[in-house]
Amino acid sequence: MPAAFPALPSLNALRMFEVVARHLNFRLAAEELGVTQAAVAQQIRGLEASLGIRLFERLPRGLGLTDAGRAYSTSVRAALAMIDEATRLLRPAPAHFTVSVTPTFASKWLIPRLGDFAEANPGIDLRLLASDRLSHFHTDAVDLAVRYGQPPFGHGLNVELLMEQRVVAVASPGLLAGKGQPGSFEALQGFVALHDAHDYWPAFTAALFPGHSPPTARNLRFNQTALAIEAALAGQGITLASQAFVAADLAAGRLVQVFELQLRLDKAFYLVWPRNPRQGDELQVVKNWLKRQAADS
């Protein structure tokens, strides 16, 4: 069988020709290609010799394309662009993988860690669906959800513990410096209690000060834990939050833990996904990464 494309020059030489034709300079072409200037010049001389025609005019200050070289560069550039496009189409596009989380879980725990995931898994296009509304796996195209509560979460779903819930009381250092440490139930009444939608305060004060009546402290209420944490950072009062959500602020000294008590609840954070997942391999990668992050937090 005769060889295909018998008149086709070396693809490496054509690639070098295209670069030199763009720059009209051997040195700049060599820098782009990562080779020596002598190697580029040699390839161009060899290409001209094999074609039997001059492609460049050697000018006192650089290069110029001959008429034949100008026409050839247009065709070669178009052909290389087609090869590049065909090659890119062969490579699989990054897999889209959607994780459903609450806004607080996203902003206070997940987002600060996402750079690590992107660095380690460039082939997975991770998408976050952050909403207080309960997302649906099929209608919202969700692959994995982080849900807070107690299983079961529904029929046809797999559930795996991600991390337990440990609730702590936190406040800004400036607030405690001005008002003092609330070491008693009565002293606690002098602080504004910052609530989120979970309303942990009754259970927390009952565990902290057994036998006392429900607190009558001033209250501010928010529909999201992240907002209550922001209010605490601003010195507006004391809030109760998952230790995982305030760990970075505690480590940086932006918040301090007011009491040693860590309230452990029956509810926890769980990974939830359909029993027949759309993307098995990506699911395992994301699950394992989330569990490693939770173990380190």
UniProtKB/TrEMBL annotation:
Give start and end of each HTH lysR-type domain.
Answer: 9-66
Q: Which Pfam families match?
A: HTH_1, LysR_substrate
Keyword annotations from UniProtKB, A to Z: DNA-binding, Transcription, Transcription regulation
Q: Which PROSITE patterns match?
A: HTH_LYSR (PS50931)
What family does the database annotate? Belongs to the LysR transcriptional regulatory family.
Q: What is this protein called?
A: LysR family transcriptional regulator
Q: What is the lineage of its organism?
A: Bacteria, Pseudomonadati, Pseudomonadota, Gammaproteobacteria, Pseudomonadales
